[in-house]
Amino acid sequence: MAKGEVGFIGLGRMGFPMARNLAAAGWTVHAHDVSPDAAKRAGAVAGITVLGAPRDVAAHASVLFSALPNDEIVLDTYLGGAGVLAGARPGLVTCDCSTVTPETSQKIHAAARGRGVAHLDTPMLGSSPQAESGEVFFMVGGDRDQLATVQPLLDVIGRLTMYVGPSGTGNRIKLLHNALGAVNAVAVAESLALAERLGVDPQTYYDVVRQGGGMAYSTYFDRRVMRVVEGNFDATFTVELMHKDVSLAARMAGADLDRMPILKEALAAYTAARARWPGQDFSGVTHVVEERFGLKISK
């Protein structure tokens, strides 16, 4: 017996495995994607029915998730003529997992409230492997009393949920997090380039940082350094997506960006990387540093 009716809009790298995991756990999933190929792939999964528009998904669901590329698409998906709110019934709870500005979530939150719908910003930490395995980390912003309604579904597609504050707070923390990750990626690339210049063996350097317990260790260093050295830039999270997130973080900083030279440098590096290697893993920003140094880190 199905556990309930859930909607899912956006069936890409993150959305499709999450929708599939919900269906596998016994939920009836009503889904939509503007891509015919993505819709066809999802429609072949038992427990997923593909519908023609976001409003159709909303009309069938008690809880609805979305995982979409950018603010413009999210706003149209929710507020457009064929959008979620056009088909939503009072009592629907919507969870937007997209990485967008807090203002976008707050705009949808206010419009949804006027229709008896609760909107939560539920951005994710993790990339496609975590979406596949159901180990995404969710930050939840919005009305805290709605969390109990969506928690059973979040427990299927994620390993941990943290309520972080009112509408838009999840988006703020997600952008802060990814901006810090971008800064780390550029800093690691520079450190590897200098190590190469000095003749330090990269495996030895990696082992010291990873095992030494010092302040230089990070999960990025652990997971990416030897991949970079080996020339493996297969994407779990692309340069293009990281550029988008750093750009949003810089926009969020406003006038304070002038007091953040490190973030500005990370944005410049990712802007250069996006122009040439947009589909590579976000560690592909290393190529920009290689060109600046006039050497190769990747073998």
Strand order of the largest sheet: 3-2-1-4-5-6
CATH hierarchy class name of the largest domain = Alpha Beta
Task: Specify the structural class.
Answer: alpha/beta
- What is the arithmetic mean of pLDDT? 97
Q: What is the element string, with H for helices and E for strands?
A: EHEHEHEHHEHEEHEHEHHHHHH
The quaternary organization reads as single chain
Q: Calculate the terminal CA-CA distance, rounded to whole Å.
A: 54 Å
Uncertain runs are: none
In total, how many beta strands? 9
Main sheet characteristics: 6 strands, parallel
Report the CATH architecture of the largest domain: 3-Layer(aba) Sandwich
Strand content: 5-15%
The CATH superfamily of the largest domain turns out to be NAD(P)-binding Rossmann-like Domain
Q: Please give the count of helices.
A: 14
Radius of gyration: 20 Å
Helix content: 40-55%
Shape descriptor reads: elongated
Question: What is the fold named in CATH at topology level of the largest domain?
Answer: Rossmann fold
Q: How many distinct folded domains?
A: 2
What does this structure look like?
By secondary structure, this protein is an alpha/beta fold. It contains 14 helices and nine strands. The strands form two sheets. It has a six-stranded parallel β-sheet, sandwiched between helices. Strands 7-8-9 form a three-stranded mixed β-sheet. Helix 9 crosses helix 13, helix 10 packs antiparallel against helix 11 and helix 13 crosses helix 14. The radius of gyration is 20 Å and the shape is elongated.
